[in-house]
Amino acid sequence: MSQEMFDKLAQAVIDGESEDAEALAKQALEQKLDPLACITNGLTVGIQKTGELFASGEYYLPELIIGADAMKAAMQILEPALLSGQEREVTGTIVIGTVEGDLHEIGKTLVGTMMTANGFRVIDLGTDIPSADFIDAVKESGANLVGASALLTTTMLQQEKLISSLKDAGLREQVKVMVGGAPVTASYAKQIGADGYAEDAISAVDLAMRLIDAPA
Amino acid sequence: MTSMTGKQRISAAFKKTFSDADPELDRVPAYMFSGACNSQLVGSTIGELMQDGQIFAKGQLAAYERYKPDIMLMMWDLNVDLEAIGNEIRFPDDSMPVITKEILEDKGKLSSLQVPDPKKDGRLPAYLDACIEVKKHVTDSPVSGVIAGPWTIAMGLRGAANLLRDSIKDPEYIHELMEFCIQATINSTQALSEIGVGVGYSEAPASMDLISPKMYREFVFPYHKKIVDHFKEKKIGVGLHVCGNADAILDDLVATGVSNLSVDSGSDLALAVEATRGKAVLIGNVPTELFLAESAEEMRQSIQNCIHVAPNDSGYILATGCEVPAIAPPKKVDWFMDLAEELGAYN
Ligand code: B1M
């Protein structure tokens, strides 16, 4: 019976049905199913499949976005129900956002979704995010990764500013910083002292795994 | 052959596309999309140039003097309509304007929105005045306006991720929204054509970087066609620019009936040549990042390649794929027109 529920949860994510996902999560708790297993064997399987469909070109961005929405909707029900001492195993925690002055939203969202699909806890701050907000989020979440996206040549400079602000706040040792976005290059990333650069969402996941020494 | 004016070169490109005539050209017609980066020519910040139409006009005139493009494109920013409709915008000193509030974050507000009046609302009047001012001084080259296209407006009002969600969850809403947005694009286009400025609209987010070809056909194409048809009746040709990779929809873009199509460096110029031949003047597509390169070598190769691929039997205008980055040094913008001159000469 639990496998049936896991499959339904996964399917709700693949279909991007937030309301179904939320209702199923509630139902699962009523049936006294293990919330952690629902996440691991249901939602995560669904978002992974969604990511694969996107990578293979079958899904476009909209399907990916609503898949992530459905996952989030069910997580909001399941996470608070995790037993004390029982923790969702996360690959790592990343605070991600598009830097100040930049409103390009999609690349950052896509990276965040692929990270979620690969077991990361993702705190997506949105767009036009000042360094100070990144720092607050790192402090609050205890993240071990920071991801900064910039799509304009003028706003790339904010990635450098973010790194120095992290240093000033005494957080630079705690986090690995990854940067990306169309005009950003590996050599620029190196020059500003970032820990890594990724060209697209899939390599961003690989990079994050490498940076925190997570088993692939 | 003595040197031609921008107007003569552009007119020749249109004749090549739309008639059997094969007028002579001294060199490939060429221009760049520049606006923000001209703040460097007039010693203002980007923020000042974006908020003051007169500084913008001064920047464009300085750019015309220095670079002598064959079309003087009035590239301000794509938020002008959005702001007039109700989005809130912040103007950083040293970077491009940013949307701080999307008016349709709450989608229910659509019914209360007003189509902006270009003579009254937001920065639209300042934009028109800047166009009038520039047209007064630029007599050798056509002056052309840049208007946000309906999909760009829709995305700006609703937010990018939200609009993509709607495409699956509430497609009817997108159609309603697009009906509203084309009114804004049509009004701005109308106002610009009344002052004798060329008209074209820009659709940054209509390419396959963000949407599928199927989405383009369902949510965008019908509205592009409506705009073009509206102006065809008035015998006004409109142009279209699409950022990013539009390879899969090139035939659709041409089928809207636009008189010129400008493609970004993400699109394949050879495919665009096939799609536009005899149907629309093709414009493109030198990558804008080359305006930040160490040397002019890559830009030289890119321009050479464009000229090599572009048709001789149908109209073509060499241009940047998109806007020159705001912090591109003027010296590197010089490269572009110098190279067009050097490599584009027809013997
Ligand atoms: C943390 O670690 C990581 C790791 C990897 C990371 C990462 C972080 N972040 C991204 N990645 C990487 O992984 C992602 C997934 O594979 C990838 O993300 P991308 O974001 O690259 O890819 C997305 C999945 C899809 N791609 C996109 O979403 C961007 C596509 C293009 C066409 C684009 C769009 C759609 C838009 N735009 Co804008 N826009 C362009 C873009 C052209 C292009 N070819 O990139 C670009 C970025 N825009 C540009 C410009 C100039 C502008 N735009 C502007 C506005 C817009 C729209 C609002 C119309 C819209 C954005 C909608 C939105 N809310 O997101 C303005 C800027 C406003 C501002 N202050 O930010 C404006 C200034 C235009 C104007 N004059 O008003 C150009 C920048 C030039 C430059 N070098 O400075 C541009 C390259 C177009 C061009 N060809 O010239 C990778 O880069």
Provide structural commentary.
The complex is a heterodimer of chains A (216) and B (347). Chain A is globular, with a radius of gyration of 18 Å. The longest helix of chain A has 21 residues. Chain A has 9 helices and 5 strands; from the N terminus they run H-H-H-H-E-H-E-H-E-H-E-H-E-H. Helix content of chain A is 55%, strand content 10%. In chain A, helix 1 packs antiparallel against helix 2, helix 1 runs parallel beside helix 3 and helix 2 packs parallel to helix 4. Chain A folds into 2 domains: 83 residues, Methionine synthase domain (Methyltransferase, Methionine Synthase (B12-binding Domains), Chain A, domain 1, Orthogonal Bundle); 119 residues, Cobalamin-binding domain (Rossmann fold, 3-Layer(aba) Sandwich). Chain A has 216 residues and is α/β, with parallel strands linked by helices. In chain A, helix 5 links the parallel strand 1 and strand 2. Chain A has a 5-stranded parallel sheet, sandwiched between helices. By secondary structure, chain B is of the alpha/beta class. Chain B has one domain: TIM Barrel (Alpha-Beta Barrel), CATH 3.20.20.210. Chain B contains 14 helices and 10 strands. In chain B, the strands form 2 sheets. In chain B, strands 1-10-9-8-7-6-5-2 form an 8-stranded parallel sheet. In chain B, strands 3-4 form a two-stranded antiparallel ribbon. Chain B is globular and about 60 Å long. The termini of chain B are close together. The interface between A and B is medium-sized, with 21 and 28 residues. Bound molecules: CO-5-methoxybenzimidazolylcobamide. CO-5-methoxybenzimidazolylcobamide (B1M) sits at the interface of chains A and B.
